[in-house]
Every structure is written in structure tokens, then in C-alpha cells.
Design brief:
By secondary structure, the protein is α/β, with parallel strands linked by helices. The protein has 14 helices and 20 strands. Helix 8 runs parallel beside helix 9 and helix 13 packs across helix 14.
Length: 461
């Protein structure tokens, strides 16, 4: 006995329609083969559109970027007819690249479902399927974060995690976080993010004490420094710390990579003082050679709460049984659009079932290929470029000794030359970062991007 929906989704007319759309997408994608300049005939109209959009949104865009609606893998067409390499992927969202036929097909399945949005009160079977995939993969090495609550943004996934932890540790009101962390821009997360400019004029919501992040050049020293800082705060505010929000890799600060021994030392202090361990994976999810960065660092036995976002399309908070919220604490009208949920399941399934993970997987191979190219450039231009180069799909570099103004000028010039990147960090430690569309990217793409990086370095004094 089939449901009406099963008959609908198996209708041969639906299959034929998806086949025709796939054919049309593939046909038009073939016209996008490499970087190209804007069409002069579209320039004025494009500039007018950018100006109006900037005024209506309350400020100009960081880049003069408005997509046309189609791309080809790592390449994307803008509405002025230009084509660029997208190596920042919407700050890490477009993992499958642009106009991926499989993602489009998944979105079609979601878009022809009965509702635009899934929510707390009504969710379709696609939500259950996505939750099961996330729960199974998160716990495959023994982690206990089997419960999954879907949400619409990474900041909201983090907010939900804070609420769970505060309720679990009722009475404790402070949190630990790493120096220079980024947790989101909601009213709560603005006070967790270690950047004063992001909370200027906002009323205080959360008390956070910051712990120095790991320094590879001083392994044991950075461990000792961080542990001492935690112990000092715990002595000053005994029993007042509910949780520690940990980034395994500090993306917004420049793709600085943590260390297992470092995290384990801090987690021990947490355990000794009834402090919950919360791993923020909104940016790191699917970017190391394990699906979760906490798995990469072999911390499965230690995590209490985990947040994910960006690559997953629909964001989520994963948590252990002993952090289950009481009725009434968690609810959202929207947990994600039906098309998002279907696309998220398709993307995660591709990475789980394809040759992406592991030390010999595509994520690691692409990183090593990119890093080798950058090392060659560093040898040629030692005063202009240096590492370290990040990890996995999170690649970063320091240009012009980390000078903020020159780094911004570099990203703007690189954009003009045909590559989307982004800044990270700030001040004298500014970095330029890339978030590769791993499913779509090829070594040829990486080589071409590195050629344009070199062109930009040469053009800048």
C-alpha cells in the first residue's frame, strides 16, 4: 500500500521533468569554462542594480557581486556576465559548487513537496531522514551526541546549545570561549564573539571569559597557558561556569588549527568542574578529513553538545541525553525549507558515501595540492606571502605580513582578477582565507586560482 505522496513522487512525468531540467542545466553550464570579464553592454545596468541594492539593504556589499543564477562547479557567473572562481562559497555554504545537478534535483524534490517550510509543529519525513543521518554519523566513533535539533542558522544552533547548557547547569551563568572566536551575530552570540565592533551599542547578555587558543610554535607552552587561564577564572568565579564553547579550528580568525592534546587538557578541567563541553562546528563541519572536526581530533568521548551549519544547509544542534532540554525550552516555527532539508541530506550523503573523507580522501588531497602551490609562491615572494595554510577545505595565508589594509586591497584585487576569497583575523594578523567547494573543485581549478593569486601579488607593490 502506497501513500498518495509516494505515487506523486514516482510519477513518470516528475522523473521526465527532472531529467529535462538536468539536461538544460548541463547544457548551459558548458558555456562557463573559465574566468572572463564583464560584458560592457551589461555594465551600467549592473552598477545601477548594485547601487540600489546597497541603498535598500542599508550598506554596500563587500564585493560588487550579484550572481546571475548559474555556475559550473567552482566557477560562477555574475549578473554582469563576468565569471569568477568561487573559493569562498558564500562563506562556506556552497560545498557542491554552483548549479550542481544532484543538488538541484534534491531541491526540486523538496520544492514540490506540500509545504515550503518544515517546522517544530509539522515536519515531513525528509526531516526525520536528515536527523537520522546526522545522528548516526556523529556517533559512529562512540560520541553520545545522538539527539539532533534542526534550526535555520548557525547562530541559532549556537543559541540553542547555550540554552541547553544553561538549563543543564542551572545557577551557573558564565561561559568560557577562545580568544578571537566567532560564534554568530545574534544578540546573545554577539557577546560570545570576541570582537567588540560586532556588539557596539548592544546591551550585555552573556558573561564570557576568554582562553588563549593553541599555538603550534609553542605546543606545551600554549597548553599550560590555557589551563592556567581556566583555573584562574574558576578560582575567581567558583561554580559559575556552565560551559566552554570550543572552535576546533578558528575560521574567522584565520583558519588556525587546534590540537588534540590541547583540547584534552582543557576538557579535563571542564570535567573536574562540571563545565559542559560544546563544540562549535558551524564552519568546520565537513571540512577536515572526518565529517566532524571533533572526530578529526579524536574527542568523541568528550563532547556534550555540537552545533553545525553552512555546508549542511539546514543547521542543527546535536546533544547527549543528559543535556536534553525540558519541554518548552526549544521550539522554532521554521527548522528549514523543504528544499534546504532535501539538499542538505543530499550533500552530506555525497560526502559520507564518496571518496572525500580519510587521510587519502579528496578533502585532504585538495588541501595538500593547494598548499604545495602556495609554498612555491612563498618561495618566489617571501616578503609578500607566508603560511601556515590552514587545514582541509579551510585554506588560509598571510599576505604582506598580515597588514590589514594591504590584505583587504589584495582580496579586492584578487576579486577583480577572478577569484573570490575573504579576510579573516584583523589588525597586524590579518589573513586571507578560502573555503573550497570540495565536491566540485578540481586540481586544475586550484592551479588556475594560484596563478591568479600570483598575478595579484605581482600587481601589488
Amino acid at each position: 500500500m502506497k501513500t498518495v505522496a509516494q505515487g506523486f513522487f514516482e510519477d513518470p512525468r516528475i522523473a521526465e521533468a527532472k531529467k529535462l531540467i538536468r539536461q538544460a542545466v548541463t547544457e548551459h553550464q558548458k558555456k562557463i569554462t573559465g574566468v572572463r570579464p564583464a560584458d560592457p553592454a551589461l555594465k551600467d545596468k549592473y552598477q545601477e542594480l548594485l547601487k540600489k541594492f546597497g541603498e535598500q539593504r542599508g550598506g554596500p556589499l563587500f564585493y560588487q557581486y550579484l550572481g546571475s543564477g548559474i555556475g559550473n562547479g567552482a566557477l560562477v557567473e555574475l549578473a554582469d556576465g563576468s565569471v569568477k572562481y568561487d573559493f569562498i562559497t558564500g562563506i562556506g555554504v556552497h560545498y557542491m559548487g554552483h548549479s550542481n545537478p544532484d543538488v538541484i534535483e534534491a531541491q526540486i524534490d523538496g520544492s514540490i513537496a506540500n509545504t515550503v517550510m518544515n517546522g517544530h509543529l509539522q515536519q515531513n519525513t525528509d526531516s526525520a531522514r536528515l536527523v537520522d543521518l546526522l545522528s548516526t554519523q556523529a556517533c559512529k566513533y562512540g560520541a553520545k551526541v545522538k539527539n539532533v535539533f534542526l534550526s535555520t542558522s548557525g547562530a541559532m544552533a549556537n543559541e540553542n546549545a547555550f540554552k541547553m547548557i544553561y538549563q543543564k547547569r542551572a545557577g551557573a551563568q558564565r561561559f568560557f570561549a577562545f580568544e578571537k572566536c566567532f560564534s554568530g551575530r545574534t544578540l546573545g552570540m554577539a557577546w560570545v564573539t570576541d570582537k567588540a565592533a560586532y556588539r557596539a551599542g548592544l546591551p550585555k547578555t552573556i558573561d564570557v571569559d576568554y582562553i588563549p587558543f593553541y599555538c603550534e610554535s609553542d605546543h606545551q607552552g600554549s597548553i599550560d597557558l590555557a589551563v592556567r587561564a581556566m583555573q584562574k577564572h574558576l578560582t575567581r568565579y567558583p561554580g559559575q561556569y556552565a560551559g566552554f564553547i570550543m572552535e576546533m579550528i578558528q575560521g574567522e580568525n584565520g583558519s588556525w588549527v587546534g590540537n588534540t592534546e590541547f583540547f584534552e587538557a582543557l576538557i579535563k578541567v571542564c570535567r573536574d568542574n562540571n563545565v559542559s563541553v560544546f563544540v562549535d562546528e558551524v564552519q568546520t563541519f565537513m571540512r577536515t578529513h572526518e565529517l566532524f572536526a571533533f572526530q578529526h581530533f579524536k574527542l568523541d568521548q568528550h563532547v556534550d553538545v555540537v552545533s553545525i551549519g553552512k555546508n549542511s544547509q539546514v543547521c542543527a544542534t546535536l546533544f547527549s541525553d543528559d543535556h536534553k532540554p525540558k519541554p518548552g525550552l526549544m521550539s522554532q516555527t521554521f527548522t528549514g525549507a523543504s528544499a534546504q532539508i532535501a539538499a542538505g541530506h543530499r550533500i552530506i550523503s555525497e560526502v559520507v558515501n564518496g571518496d572525500y573523507l580519510g587521510k587519502n580522501g579528496k578533502i585532504e588531497n585538495c588541501h595538500q595540492h593547494f598548499a604545495r602551490n602556495l609554498e612555491k609562491l612563498q618561495a618566489k615572494y617571501p616578503a609578500k606571502l607566508k603560511g601556515p595554510w590552514g587545514i582541509g577545505a579551510m585554506v588560509a595565508m598571510t599576505v604582506f605580513e598580515g597588514d590589514e589594509a594591504k590584505s583587504k586591497a589584495f582580496t579586492m584585487k584578487l576579486f577583480e582578477n577572478g577569484v573570490l576569497s575573504f579576510m579573516a583575523g584583523g589588525g597586524s594578523t590579518t589573513r586571507v582565507r578560502f573555503l573550497m567547494p570540495i565536491v566540485a573543485v578540481t586540481t586544475h581549478d586550484i592551479d588556475k586560482v594560484c596563478e591568479l593569486i600570483e598575478k595579484t601579488l605581482v600587481e601589488m607593490e
